[in-house]
Input
Amino acid sequence: MDYFWDLFFSGLTRGSIYALIALGYTMVYGIIELINFAHGEIYMLGAFTGLIVAGICSVLGLSLISTLVLAIVIAMIYASAYGVTVERIAYRPLRNAPRLSPLISAIGMSIFLQNYVLLAQTSKFVPFPNLIPDFAFMQPFEDFIGPSELVIIVVTAVAMTVLTLFIKYTKIGKAMRATAQNRKMALLCGVNVDHVISMTFIIGSALAALGGVLIGSYMGQINFFIGFIAGIKAFTAAVLGGIGSIPGAVLGGLILGWTESFATGYVSSDYQDVFAFCLLVLILIFRPAGILGRTNTKKV
Amino acid sequence: MLEIRSICSFYGKIQALYDVSLKIEPGEIITLIGANGAGKTTTLMSICGIVPPRTGEIFFEGEPIHNLTPEKIVAKGIVQVPEGRLIFPRMTVLENLDMGAYLRNDKEEIKKDLEYVFDLFPILAERQDQLGGTLSGGEQQMLAISRALMARPKLLLLDEPSLGLAPLVIKQIFEIIQKINQAGTTIFLVEQNAHQALKIAHRGYVMENGRIVLADKAEALLTNEQVKKAYLGL
Output
């Protein structure tokens, strides 16, 4: 039974990270109907920023906890700046263009950012220090859940709760929902749609960077290409859950994480992706809009 | 209050409005009637800055507004109830009303206005926690009007408020429009239902193929042979 719980928690950890990235895809899609292919790269930039901050902190001799907090906060701010800039220069000028144009622009942005990090940093994997301390109280459970996993699961849960409350109750959160449901009407209510779109990119990028720093610390190494794989997986999670739906992205992320983890544990690690994508195909056959996705109904 | 001076508006290369001019005085109910595709909705969208006019000018209370963004125009007190109502379907009735008051920060006054619209449409008070998309067509129209009122408009633009509604509901909606006007809000009403619109309006404009072709007192338009034949089905 320990083996089962081990797989359960490693799947939950993986799934949490997928969910953090998937939220960025789904929120952006919900508002401007664009698959932001550069989103995985924002996650990768977040991980690199976290690594640089961690390096500076260790030179300054800061404690592990303050290093972790600083790395996360600075990575989130930095990645948000990248996210907003990408929107500003690559998507906003194409807002009224045919839908394919911003999609191609997004792929271009993704390639650009990968190569930018490749040139500015390195093509090799770089080691990422473990920023998560060993908690004494975790000892009895260490057979199936480590401190890193616990931190990732808890931090993700807190981030999602904050996001949910933000979207539900704040003024800007309501404006985001209104813009997603009917952009023209949001304009007529006096919403500055450009601000709302920028805000969406800020939140999505910050969550991706949070995921990037946590996964860097968990896996112990990063390179310029991690955003591609993680981006595809998170995009799959978003589609699985129903793109445009926030709870859907979380659910999709977790289901994907568990599928991969159990497939690896009980079948073979070679088949991890096969199971993940088979699941996607099945869901798309039987529920094309995703698990929590809506098929649009309109009242005349 | 609002003066439009020969505006021309376009959708891409297609011209929808040709030298449209009209004038609305404070306290009036003005109606704009015309067939499908005549340019009535475009006129409203041009006033609101969603389809800004390419040439011509729009003045509101003496100030030019044709170069302003939609949110600045709403802030000036011009609020539209668009065609098709455009309720936010997955927000509750209360949240839809909150969105109407989006640019306001005076909590106490917003509360008073909420009571005012619940008084106008008691059904909305009953359904305040229901999702907008689950309301009937008539209720959605009431919600759309209430949402606009939550912005405390000086000038309320209504686009086809009777579209797709049952005769009894239409009657109720038109009564409310008159009530809102009597409370001091100027109204610009776009309608295909020319007879109903002209009955409550002070003055009217008739639009054909993107041009204003007639302008007169509402009673005069009701008896105008041309209007009778084309729009009143008499």
Observations:
- The first strand of chain B starts at residue 2 and ends at 11.
- The mean pLDDT of chain B is 93.
- Strands of chain B lie at 2-11, 14-24, 29-34, 55-60, 63-64, 78-81, 155-159, 186-191, 203-208, 211-217.
